[in-house]
Amino acid sequence: MEPQLKTLRNGLRAVLVPCEAESIAFGLFVASGSRHEDAAHAGISHFIEHMLFKGTPTRSPLDITQAIEGRGGNFNACTGEESTCYFAHLPNECLDEAIDILSDMYLRATIPADEFAREKQVVIEEIKMYADEPDSVALENLQRNLFPASPLGAPVAGSAASLAPMTPAVLRRYVKTHYRPDNTIAVLVGAFDPDKALQTLEAKLGRFARKAAASAAAEEDHGTVVPTASVTREINQAQLALGYRTFGLRDPRKYAATVLDAVLGRGMSSRLFQEVREKRGLSYDISSRLHLFADAGMFTVTAGLDASKADAARATIDRELARITTTRVGAEELRRTKEFLVGNFRLSHEKMTSKLFFYGQTMLAFGRLVSPTEQIAGIRAVTATDVRDVAREIFRPENRSVSWVLPKRNG
């Protein structure tokens, strides 16, 4: 059966994706992330993600965990710049339980004071953990440099300072104004009866309504890119994060940019891996990543390397970036890259949670159903000229920043 888009009585949109499987995956995608926060609430979306697992009027935190894991399932949540997602993956006879538990968390999380105080410390420890990881520091500093005037440049988890004044009441108010039917997508994937599933969704999620409050609008002016950032740590290996600010997810050139990313830094046959690691031995691990938001994006290259090889590594990377702006990708390399992307996409869709995230994220981004067929066709249509032209657009000097985390002894 084809995926179906349904709208509940309160306006909440539900994507139903029936398919042959031994399991179901259910998720709630909320358009509430770090870019929707002002400075006074930095990190609140991520903190709320943690607190929704801490109990409802009828379920303790342990009840929630045991209800999922006791059936052999798993559940989790994640927060990004533009959304927060809660999801569960269970045997297909547990559809009602999955919808009931996540709906209960979404609608009736109590955010008790004792759990709040403990979890605040857990989140602060999570922030400290990432601060101890040089690759995370390099990327965080890079993103701040690429979006210096925008919430997109702020850490998703906030900081210990921004979390300190938050109270349970602040989180509850934020949930009420952001976790709304018009701001939420429900996605159900797996073996189920669509009519019965829709009835269950209506019963659990179709009756509530919450009013929108004034929220921080997504900023169009992200500021002037800061060209460099460098910090030192007690580490043995230098970490490089090099990036460019670029266009967003709704730009039709996203397919060409995806192919560009794969040619340069996806997998061991990519150009950067071959040139930097295999031919010159300058880095153990190097890769690129295209990360697109609604109205902007970033193309990044990351590598861990010996500080004494830093200049040689960056020069090699720059040569490869320059080369792809002047010389078209060969026919065989282009064919192989597109087959890699299409095959990777198809294989990922054998996983229930991958399907779940595809439909949830594309619904949030475009407000409509995007089919796997459309996604694959977009990749297959990319030409060598498209790749060269999008490389010229992305790799502009004024949009570039370089972030280093260097060993102190070489600092």
3D structure, described in words:
With 411 residues, the protein is an alpha+beta fold. The chain has 15 helices and eleven strands. A six-stranded mixed β-sheet has the order 1-2-6-3-5-4, with helices on both faces. Strands 7-11-8-10-9 form a five-stranded mixed β-sheet, sandwiched between helices.
Count of DSSP strands? 11
Oligomer: single chain
- The total count of helices amounts to 15
Q: Structural class of the helix and strand makeup?
A: alpha+beta
Major β-sheet profile: 6 strands, mixed
| Beta-strand content estimate | 15-25%
| Rounded radius of gyration (Å) | 22 Å
Summed up, what is this model?
This protein is of the alpha+beta class and 411 residues long.
What are the key terms here?
411 residues, alpha+beta, six-stranded mixed β-sheet, five-stranded mixed β-sheet, 44% helix, 19% strand
Strand and helix layout:
Elements lengths: L3 E4 L5 E6 L4 E8 L13 H8 L9 H9 L4 E6 L4 E8 L3 H14 L4 H19 L2 H13 L13 H4 L4 H11 L5 E7 L3 H12 L22 E6 L4 E9 L7 H12 L5 H9 L5 E8 L4 E9 L4 H17 L4 H18 L3 H15 L5 H9 L3 H11 L5 E8 L4
Parallel strand pairs: 2-6, 7-11
Antiparallel strand pairs: 1-2, 3-5, 3-6, 4-5, 8-10, 8-11, 9-10
Helix pairs in contact: 3-8, 9-15, 10-11, 11-15, 12-14
